[in-house]
Amino acid sequence: MKIWNQVSKSIILVALVGTTGMASIASAHEADCPYCKLPVVQNTEDQDNEVVLKAGNKRIEYRCLYCVIKDQKRYKGDLVIYSPSEKVGEPVILKRTSGKWTAPEGAVFVNAFKKHPDCATFSRAFSNVAAFDAYIAKNPVEGAKALTLEQFLAEVAKN
Amino acid sequence: MIGPLKLEAHMRKTLFVALAFMSLAFAGAQDHAGGHQPHSTKLPAMPPDMPRWISSPGSDHLFYKAGPYNWDIERIPAFARDMYGTGVGHAMAYEALVTGQQRNLETGVFEKINRVLQNPPRVPVDEAAISPTFVRKFGYLEKVFDWAHILHFQTIDVLMHPGWSDAQKEAEVDRLWTFYSGQPYAITGLPMNMEYLDSFPFSGRFRTNYPKVNGLFWGYHWLQTVNYDMLFRVPVKDQAPQYEVLGSQYRATELYRIRDFMPMTAELSPRFAKRFPQIANTFDNLHMLHDNVNDILAADELSDRQKREQVKIAIYRVLASSHKSHEPGSGEDVPGTLHDHRHPPSTPGMGYMKGMEDDIMYMSGMGWMDMSACGHCSIPLPDGPMWGATVTADGWTMMVRCLMCARDMAAETPGRAIIRAATEDPSRILVLISDEEGNLTSNIPGVVFLEEFGEHPECSTWSRAFTSKAAFDQFIKDHPDLAEAKPLELSAWAQINRGTPDTYRKLDRANPYRPESATGGTR
Lengths: 159, 523
What we know:
The complex is a heterodimer. Chain A is α+β, with helices and mostly antiparallel strands.
């Protein structure tokens, strides 16, 4: 009965919130990118955007690949990055094992943002070059090149 | 030349106009207009019932209530030093403001304060020695500050005292409140409308012109408010390990964070604020008095006389004596005014914040949240002895329904975290501390977890911590529907992650302090 009362309160609150023009219940915490402090761009139905880092028991979201690579020093152990790709629900998985990064064969990367607010759009991974080409055709940007993992890491390191 | 009759009429008209302006200005100070308050353009006027002690030249020195717990803050030396440092920082900034050094505030004065904060004093420092000009000019203000700072330190001392039960400590904190409230310099324990208190012509001046030093002030307020849940109903032996996390966070990050609004006690120590709402409100009202004074001193268009007057009026606004016969929760008929004492229904230890609607408020850097609901799954918080848990991470504290919500919320947050949770024994709180990679240590060596994943609205039943295997077994015996459940040890339980609950809801509204920005953004 108590649980039903609590659920009822949620339902009633949603209704009230709806009638006052609010979109939904205000409740939970969504952090900004731990590195650049900008909001993490949320996944949509058509495109994944959230970069997820698995470090030990932690699952931390970052705004883009550049940000998570830049921030990796704070983590001591092995890491896994689930990087949004051209396919919804099928991330490109990068692994740092004993300090060395690996990615799936054929994966390519872009790192072509000029201003940090554009990082979520232009610091990304793709499962193959064709996917990169299709993305850049839809999102043209000067200087976009399909980078290997080593090239991507070197670009991030020099900035 | 004006004849005698015309002169009398002229004087009467002048007096009438002056009285009319004074009434308008006083009405501005009382502000019965209601609703959201844009910055008013009229300076508040001196109220007719300003207490006489404000003009007394005596030092009226008061000191601690006698007790065996005094100075127990020294049991965590780093915490004691950081708290002593906050007094030095305040004093240095105030002295700079009253001696014409405003232009150095963000540079030389900031650097000086920062050096002290990173190397804080081993003993509490007499602020009058650091800010003699300020104390000479504003001695009446120092009486109010000092008296409230004593309440801060003594409540901490009690909660850190070894050998006393939680009941003994809470009874003594209640006595401290009575002791504090009995003096004329006491700040009210009623919730006050924070938007109203931040709505005067000079409001916001200090944080706009001196953001780095203001960041230090609000950083101190973070420390002064976050520490209470570290101590409240936590065994003395389990307090210091938490300060290792909080102290690092304070010195490395919170002192330099730029926020939209000052930290509130109930935001950072919700459990303490729930038990002692009057003390939580007093601390918030004190911190807002600091903000008002900062703003007044930074308002260059005010003369010295005007500044002294406005500081007195700011004190008047928050004194307990100014709010006699008013009750918490009252003020619906005078919203957004001096006597608006409404509070979120679930949180009597907090006044109304900008844009607040019932329990829904904007927390700087976190976005909109419902104070009565779990910060992770959005389901209302449970009542009773199984109160759920709190998570302190990345400078915030959130209440959650259950251990699973606590673990997963900490796991999705960068940096170290502290989880405090109810167990089956109301006198034993579980304290888990997480490192950067989510590896947990526990203050209860034999802690055992239950997690039989089911429907989220029931998570506080199937996600729990027990102080022993025997306690777990007894619970399972009392709940035959969980007969298949296996006890989980800490390391196994810590590796589980259920992700974002499907009940989670986020409100997509603008930051009320920066409507042009996104919902999150920097604090």
